[in-house]
Specification:
Layout: H1 3-8, H2 14-17, H3 20-25, H4 32-37, H5 47-58, H6 62-65, H7 73-81, H8 93-104, H9 110-122, H10 132-147
Helix pairs in contact: 7-8
Length: 162
């Protein structure tokens, strides 16, 4: 299984289904479960064309095209998405949309958890009446101070504005 996809889907069985090895062996016949899991994709892809592209992908001559199933998922799919037909059109437009979404999913929710932790430090029981703008500005200042090496080096004009 691709390490990138396994990390992207820690809670979903989908990760195991989209490794390059399984894609090349065509052990997964359809991508309909992805469309069920992410219904917004139905607005952007044709489900029948997606399954047809998935099957065509399985029939590629991987050696001739230099597609190694052991390479990093992003590099593998970039090579696949750069393939063109004889007219110069992209071979897998629907598959490209789906796989780009799957590869763009965050590896974890750690960054969100960090924001909530910072918010908890900023907004205490004694400071519970702060409005949203004040909280956001406090978090921006806190982040800027941490990144720029302390309060002596802090420049309020260079702080990220929200």
């Amino acid at each position: 299984m691709s390490p990138c996809l396994a990390k992207a889907f820690p809670d979903f069985e989908i990760a195991k289904k989209f490794s390059m090895q399984k894609a090349q062996k065509f052990s997964k016949k359809s991508l309909q479960d992805v469309l069920i899991r992410f219904p917004i994709l139905k607005d952007y892809v044709n489900s029948q064309a997606l399954d047809q592209e998935w099957r065509e992908h399985a029939l590629l001559d991987y050696e001739k095209l230099g597609l190694d199933s052991d390479q990093i998922a992003e590099k593998y799919w970039i090579k696949v998405f750069n393939l063109k037909n004889k007219l110069g059109a992209t071979l897998f437009p629907n598959l490209k949309i789906v796989m780009r979404l799957l590869l763009a999913l965050p590896f974890s929710n750690a960054s969100v958890e960090r924001v909530f932790s910072a918010l908890k430090i900023c907004k205490t029981d004694l400071r519970n009446r702060m409005d949203t703008a004040t909280i956001v500005n406090s978090l921006v200042i806190r982040e800027s101070i941490e990144k720029d090496g302390g309060c002596k080096a802090f420049n309020p004009y260079m702080a990220k504005k929200i």
